[in-house]
Specification:
Layout lengths: L8 H27 L13 H8 L7 E5 L3 H7 L3 H8 L23 E5 L5 H15 L5 E6 L6 H13 L3 E7 L2 E2 L2 E2 H4 L9 H4 L2 E6 L3 H16 L5 E6 L17 H9 L2 H11 L5 H24 L38 E5 H15 L3 E5 L16 H5 L4 E3 L4 H12 L4 E6 L9 H8 L2 H4 L9 E6 L15 H5 L5 E3 L4 H12 L5 E6 H4 L2 E5 L11 E4 L4 E5 L3 H14 L4 E5 L2 E3 L3 H11 L2 E8 L4 H13 L8 E5 L8 H7 L3 H11 L6
Parallel strand pairs: 1-2, 1-3, 3-4, 4-8, 7-8, 10-11, 10-12, 12-13, 13-15, 14-15, 18-19, 18-21, 21-22
Antiparallel strand pairs: 5-6, 9-16, 14-20, 17-19
C-alpha cells in the first residue's frame, strides 16, 4: 500500500474522520435494530467506508451522486447532516425524506445525493441522465453512480454504461465490489475475474483499485473524475472491499468463506487506516481518539434529535404524490379539475401526427430545457410514424437525440435529467415496450417525489404509440396498458382522441411538474383534424363532453371515441339520445363530469381499447355505482377488448376490439331492445 502521507496530513485525517463518522452511524443503526427501537431491512456498509470517504473528498456539493440501498457510507460522505439521516431511520418528518423514504430511499439534493434506489442496478440509467444534463448545460458537474458487484450483471447497468460511453458523459460508475451479490459469491456470479475489465467492451476507461485503501481509491477516483470534468467521458471504477458481515443486518454468514471473513475482519479498513496514521506519524493517539469521540457525540445528538422529532401527520399520506395534492383519484379534492378550455386565436388543419410534431416543435422552440430522446427519432427517419420528422434538422442532434435500443437507459436518462429541472420527452416506440423499462417508470419516475419527501420532482414526458386495431401488428406491438399505469400512484396519463387535444395535452404534459405518459393511438395518427397555432394547453384531468344527450352516457378515450361516435349515429336512428364524454385523461380522472352526465341520463356504457377484465371501465363503473346507485335506471355496462392476446389475423383482431356495432348493441340492451 502507498503511504497515507502521499495524501497530506489534513486530507488523510479528513478521510479518516469521514470513515469514523460512517462507522458510528452504521453501528448506531444496528444497535437500534437489535434493541427493537428501529424496524426495517438494513444493509451495513462495514468494510466499504474508505471507498465513500475517499471519493467524497474529491466531490463538491454540486456534484451528483446516485447510490444503492447499501447507502449509509455514501450519504454520510456526500455531506448530508447525520441528524437528518438518523431522523429518516426513525421515520420522522425531520428526516431527509420526511419519513417517506426510509433507509433504502435516502436522498438529499442539497448535498447532491439525488437518488438512492432499492432496486439492484436501477440507479445507473438515472445517473446517466444526471450526467447528460450536466453535459448539456455545461455545468462542469460530475455524477458518481455507486452499485455493488451483483448489479454489474443487471441489464440496466449494461444499457447505462453503453449509452454513457456513446455520449461521452461526465459520469463515474463505481462498482463497490464486496465479493458477494446478496448470498452468492463473486466467483458464483460471473466468469469475469473482475468488473473493471468490462469497460473495454463499452469503449470507456476502466480501472480496479483496493477499496480498503483510501490512497488507492483517491488516486483512481481522482483520475476518473478529472477525466469526466475534462469531457473525456465515463469511467468504470471497481473498488474491491470485502464485506465484513452478512448481506443484511441479522443475516447469517454461513454462505461466506469463514477463514477469509475472519482475516478481513482482522484487517478491517477502519483499523488499518488508524494504524497507518499512527505509524506514519500523521496523527497522535490523542487526536484520533478525539475524532472518534466527536463522531459518537454527533451520532448521540442525531439519535436524540430523531427520537424527539415528530412523526408525519396523517394528512401527509396524500402529499408529494403529485405537485398538486388535489389531483389524486382519491383523497381530498378528488374528482377532476376546474379549468378553462384553450381558445387559440387561429387554427389550421392538421392530422393527429402533425399535431404531435407541432407540439414538440413549439416546446423545443420556446423552452431551452426541453429535449427529445428515443430510438430512430432523428432525421432522416424522424420516428416510425414521422412524429419527430424535421426536428433534429431544425434543433440539432443534441436536443433531438437518437438513442440505442435501450428502453431502460432511455427512460432512466430522462428521469435523471428531469431531476435537474430539464424537461425531457422520451419516446417509447410502442406502448408494449414500456414493459421492458417498467421498473424505471413505476419504481422511479412515479415514486421519487414521494420517496424524497417532495425534495425532488420528475417533470418527464413519456410518449408511447398504441398500435392496436390497425391490423398486422400482433400480440406484442398492439396493447393499451393504461390500466397498468393508472394503478401506479404518481403517474399522470393522457390519451387524446383528436389532433387538437393531442397537441394541447402533449404541451401540458411537457410543462407539467410530474411524470406524464402520453398514449398516442396509431389509429388516430393520420386522421384529419385541426390544431391551434402556437402554444396552447389542454388541461390534464378535464374531460370533454363531445355530444349532449338525455338517455345514455357513453364514456371513452383515444381511438375508442371513433367507435363511440359511430355508435351514437346508429342509436339516434333507434330514438336513443347519447351523451358522449371523452375522458382525455386517465389520471387525473374527471369523475365529476362523468357523474354529472350519468346522473342526468341514468345509464352509462364505458368503452376502452384495453382488455375489459380489470380495465379502467371496472373502476369507473364502481365509482358510478357507489355515487349514483339509487339514480341508475340500469347497471353500468362495460365494453373493452376481449381477454385474449391481440391476434394477427385481421378478422380475429376485429372480434377482439370493441366496435361501434357492439357498443350500439350493448346500449340497446340497457333499454331492453335488440338490434333491428
Amino acid at each position: 500500500m502507498t503511504q497515507l502521507s502521499t495524501l497530506g496530513r489534513d486530507l488523510a485525517l479528513d478521510i479518516y474522520r469521514t470513515m469514523v463518522r460512517i462507522a458510528a452511524c452504521d453501528e448506531r443503526i444496528q444497535q437500534g435494530l437489535a434493541a427493537g427501537d428501529l424496524q426495517f431491512q438494513y444493509y451495513p456498509a462495514g468494510g466499504q467506508e474508505a471507498i465513500a470517504a475517499a471519493i467524497g473528498a474529491l466531490l463538491t456539493p454540486e456534484d451528483y451522486c446516485v447510490t444503492t440501498y447499501r447507502v449509509i457510507h455514501d450519504i454520510v460522505a456526500k455531506g448530508t447532516p447525520v441528524r437528518e439521516i438518523m431522523a429518516e431511520m426513525y421515520g420522522k418528518e425531520t428526516g431527509t425524506s420526511r419519513g417517506k423514504g426510509g433507509p433504502m430511499h435516502l436522498s438529499d439534493p442539497k448535498s447532491g445525493l439525488m437518488v438512492t434506489t432499492g432496486i439492484v442496478g436501477a440507479g445507473a440509467p438515472i445517473a446517466g441522465g444526471l450526467a447528460l444534463a450536466g453535459q448539456m448545460k455545461g455545468t462542469g458537474r460530475v455524477t458518481v453512480c455507486s452499485f455493488g458487484d451483483g448489479a454489474a450483471n443487471i441489464g440496466a447497468v449494461h444499457e447505462a454504461l453503453n449509452m454513457a460511453a456513446l455520449w461521452r458523459l461526465p459520469v463515474v460508475f463505481v462498482c463497490q465490489n464486496n465479493l458477494y451479490a446478496e448470498y452468492t459469491s463473486f466467483e458464483g456470479s460471473t466468469r469475469s475475474t473482475d468488473i473493471a475489465g468490462r469497460a473495454a467492451g463499452y469503449g470507456m476507461a476502466g480501472e480496479r483499485c483496493d477499496g480498503r485503501d483510501p490512497v488507492s481509491v483517491y488516486e483512481a477516483a481522482g483520475r476518473a473524475i478529472d477525466r469526466a470534468r475534462a469531457g473525456d467521458g465515463p469511467t468504470l471504477l471497481e473498488c474491491v472491499a470485502p464485506r465484513l458481515q452478512g448481506h443484511a443486518f441479522g443475516s447469517d454468514q454461513a454462505h461466506m468463506d469463514q477463514a477469509r471473513l475472519a482475516e478481513d475482519i482482522a484487517n478491517a479498513p477502519l483499523k488499518t487506516v488508524r494504524n497507518r496514521l499512527l505509524e506514519e506519524a500523521l496523527a497522535s493517539e490523542t487526536e484520533l481518539t478525539a475524532i472518534e469521540d466527536a463522531a459518537r457525540v454527533e451520532v448521540d445528538a442525531a439519535q436524540t434529535f430523531a427520537m424527539e422529532s415528530q412523526s408525519p401527520a396523517a394528512a401527509e399520506l396524500y402529499t408529494e404524490i403529485f405537485a398538486d395534492n388535489t389531483l389524486l383519484p382519491e383523497g381530498p379534492g378528488a374528482g377532476g379539475v376546474a379549468a378553462d378550455e384553450p381558445t387559440p386565436a387561429e387554427t389550421v388543419k392538421a392530422s393527429f401526427g402533425e399535431a404531435v410534431n407541432n407540439a414538440l416543435d413549439v416546446a423545443l422552440e420556446t423552452d431551452p430545457d426541453v429535449f427529445l430522446l428515443g430510438e430512430d427519432i432523428m432525421d432522416p427517419a424522424g420516428g416510425i410514424v414521422k412524429a419527430t420528422y424535421g426536428l433534429s434538422t431544425k434543433y440539432g442532434t443534441e436536443r433531438v437525440r437518437g438513442t440505442p435500443i435501450s428502453e431502460q437507459a432511455i427512460v432512466g436518462a430522462a428521469i435523471g435529467a428531469s431531476l435537474t429541472g430539464m424537461k425531457p420527452v422520451a419516446e417509447i416506440m410502442v406502448c408494449d415496450f414500456a414493459m421492458v423499462c417498467m421498473d424505471q417508470i413505476a419504481n422511479h419516475a412515479a415514486k421519487l417525489r414521494y420517496m424524497s419527501g417532495g425534495r425532488t420532482s420528475v417533470p418527464v414526458t413519456l410518449r408511447m404509440l398504441t398500435a392496436g386495431n390497425v391490423g398486422s401488428f400482433g400480440a406484442q406491438h398492439s396493447q393499451s396498458l393504461e390500466s397498468w399505469f393508472a394503478h401506479i400512484p404518481g403517474l399522470k396519463i393522457v390519451a387524446p382522441s383528436n389532433a387538437f387535444d393531442a397537441k394541447g395535452l402533449l404541451l401540458s404534459c411537457i410543462h407539467d411538474p410530474d411524470p406524464c405518459i402520453s398514449l398516442e393511438a396509431m389509429r388516430c395518427f393520420f386522421a384529419p383534424g385541426e390544431i391551434g397555432v402556437g402554444d396552447y394547453r389542454v388541461p390534464i384531468g378535464k374531460a370533454a363532453v363531445r355530444q349532449k344527450g338525455d338517455d345514455v352516457t357513453l364514456v371513452s378515450y383515444s381511438w375508442g371515441m371513433q367507435e363511440v361516435m359511430g355508435a351514437a349515429g346508429a342509436l339516434a336512428e333507434a330514438g336513443i339520445s347519447a351523451e358522449i364524454i371523452d375522458l382525455r385523461s386517465i389520471v387525473p380522472l374527471d369523475l365529476n363530469t362523468v357523474l354529472a352526465s350519468v346522473g342526468k341520463t341514468g345509464r352509462a356504457v364505458i368503452v376502452h381499447p384495453a382488455v375489459e377484465f380489470c380495465g379502467l371501465g371496472a373502476e369507473l363503473s364502481a365509482k358510478i355505482h357507489e355515487n349514483l346507485f339509487s339514480e341508475l335506471k340500469a347497471p353500468v355496462a362495460r365494453l373493452g377488448a376481449r381477454y385474449t392476446p391481440i391476434p394477427f389475423n385481421q378478422q380475429l383482431e376485429a372480434l377482439h376490439f370493441p366496435t361501434a356495432e357492439g357498443i350500439a348493441t350493448t346500449v340497446l340492451g340497457l333499454f331492453g331492445k335488440t338490434p333491428a
